[in-house]
Amino acid sequence: MKRYLYLWHRWLGIALCLFMAMWFFSGVVMLYVGYPKLTPREHLAHLPALPVEGCCAAPVRAGADWPAGLVLSSIGGEPVYLLPRPGQVAQVLDARTGIPAGPVDAERALAAAAQFAPGAPAELQALINEDAWTHSRALDADRPLYRIALHDAQRRLIYVSSQTGAVVRDATGTERAWNWVGTWIHWLYPLRGNALQPIWTDTVIWLSLAATVMGLLGMIIGVLRWRRRRYRSGSHSPYRGWARWHHITGLVAGLLLICWIFSGLMSMNPWGIFSRAPTLAVAAYSGSPGPPAQTDVGDILRRLQVGGWQPVELQWRRIAGRYWVSASNAVGEQRVLDLQTGALVGQLPRELLQASIAAMAPTQQVQFEWLTAHDFYYYPRAEHSMLGHLPKPLPMLRARFADGRWVEVDPATGALLGQSSPARRVSRVLFALLHSWDWLPLLEHRPLWDVWMVGFSLGGMLISVSGVVIGYRRLRPGRRRRAATARVGG
């Protein structure tokens, strides 16, 4: 049996150690430079203030229902309504007339670039479906994309949706340079956006699974080969040179190596194991629609501008049938207007929020928890990390339903921050905790987190590189010829 352990570990190592070394090196890069994205902060920072006079017609006909999630923003320097459509990209309406905007052509794409970076020379490069910096599935509804190069200090590429005309992604020169040796190879993106696309998911899953098995076998062998009493060489390990480094480093960092590879597998949600629970009814949270008392958009803007505050984007939100407008300024500060009373509010009524959440699953018991500090399941991350752009405001209202599903709501705006099932919370442990060590005692005490992540990543890299060297020496032609000669001579 031992012999088969050695053989399986050896040949899996020969096949996979180069991948492992690549994953560890690129993983260290990703700790500090993430895949390009347009964060909410960047989006708001590039919007002009909404004008009060002559800005906007009523977003819907008199007496009609207002759609929940309606947004008033700016595209190409002009105010627009973004009308949400389930399963599709939002419909763009001219905010002054309420008429649907026309097709997005090159001229409108360049206007969006001018709004994003006023004064920066912009060069329209191409209309593309996908390239190295636009693999995210979140962009699917916006494709094809206009790729525009900005000749500014950051050497940015920006991508404009051909469906809405809005900038949906930016990638600086620094981000692109580091991503070639970071995310792009870590996530095997050479297999994306081309003829190999159909095999990308399965390739990542099976490589990660095989590497996990290889790591487990290596740990077993490492323990079996370690002696309390020293070998003749004076070492507790029977190996020399690179093999000894491989053995000892594997014993020290091997468990974390296994955790990282296995959690990388879990990040792919293999075979849909974390996404089988039904979601709660968002429509029930919104309630039955009705016309708001306040429909004059100019008056809404004037009420929000008290004290010289300048909103750049508004979002209409319906909760329990009542309408609220959440406004954001260019630095991400928010104000909320109750359209029933016309008053600014610091927080939506507690009873209204709890009743709306309970309506999402009326047959189940629900417990409410008001968080004033981040916890194991709700915490902020650095903006460049995978989900670091998502806001984690406090206080936060969490509802726990009897079947194990949770809902999290921002009481300041009424926004649904997320839903989770028991399976998704298991995924949080198996992926986010084991892969990124998203654990508050570490995250809140940097550089302790950095020392932990970089230190053990270097250990994993040494295990992998030593495995590559051992594998090369095993397979090199000269060694095979000597081994064959020895067998013949024997």
How does this structure look, described?
- The protein is α+β, with helices and mostly antiparallel strands and 490 residues long.
- The protein has a domain at 40-179.
- Helix content is 39%, strand content 18%.
- It has helices spanning 2-30, 40-45, 106-116, 173-179, 183-186, 200-225, 241-267, 282-286, 297-304, 350-358, 422-436, 440-443, 448-475, 477-489; strands at 71-75, 78-85, 88-94, 122-128, 145-150, 157-161, 167-171, 311-319, 322-329, 334-338, 343-345, 366-371, 396-401, 406-409, 416-420.
- A 7-stranded antiparallel sheet has the order 3-2-1-8-9-10-11.
- It is globular.
- The protein starts with a helix and ends with a helix.
- Mean pLDDT is 91; it is low at 484-490.
Largest sheet: 7 strands, antiparallel
Query: What's the SSE pattern?
Result: HHEEEHEEEEHHHHHHEEEEHEEEEHHHH
Number of strands: 15
End-to-end distance, in Å?
26 Å
Rg from alpha-carbon coordinates: 28 Å
Percent range for helical residues?
25-40%
Uncertain parts = 484-490
Strand content: 15-25%
- The outline comes out as globular
- Given helix and strand content, the structural type is alpha+beta
Helical run tally: 14
Average pLDDT reading: 91
Strand order within the widest sheet?
A: 3-2-1-8-9-10-11
Features:
membrane; 490 residues; disordered C terminus; 15 strands; 4-stranded antiparallel beta sheet; 14 helices; alpha+beta; single chain; transmembrane; globular; 7-stranded antiparallel beta sheet; transmembrane helix
